[in-house]
Specification:
GO terms for molecular function: DNA binding. It holds the Pfam family HTH_26. This is Helix-turn-helix transcriptional regulator. It comes from Dyadobacter flavalbus. By secondary structure, the protein is mainly alpha-helical. The protein has a single domain, classed as lambda repressor-like DNA-binding domains (434 Repressor (Amino-terminal Domain)), CATH 1.10.260.40. Helices cover 52% and strands 7% of the residues. The chain has a two-stranded antiparallel ribbon.
């Protein structure tokens, strides 16, 4: 998947444990761990906002995009919101 989750990097920079972050954003350790390991398929904006608030960062500090030439391109009609 071309979306890279750098949550562990931001947690290390802020010297925050997974359990401490889970408490601050009101998520279970299991769900936060799924996100941290990059296995999550989606994230709610409200969850992303809470994580950014707790870590004092921006979404781009946590999420990154890496182009993958093997991924099929999205047709133009599916690409618009």
């Amino acid at each position: 998947m071309p979306i890279i989750v750098n949550l562990d990097v931001m947690m290390a920079k802020r010297k925050m444990s997974l359990s401490e972050l889970a408490q601050k954003v009101d998520l279970t350790l299991a769900n936060l761990s799924i996100l941290k390991t990059g296995k999550a398929k989606a994230i709610r904006f409200s969850t992303l906002e809470a994580i950014c608030h707790a870590l004092d960062c921006k979404p781009g500090d946590i999420l990154d995009f890496e182009s993958d030439s093997r991924s099929p391109s999205v047709p133009a009609e599916e690409n618009s919101l």
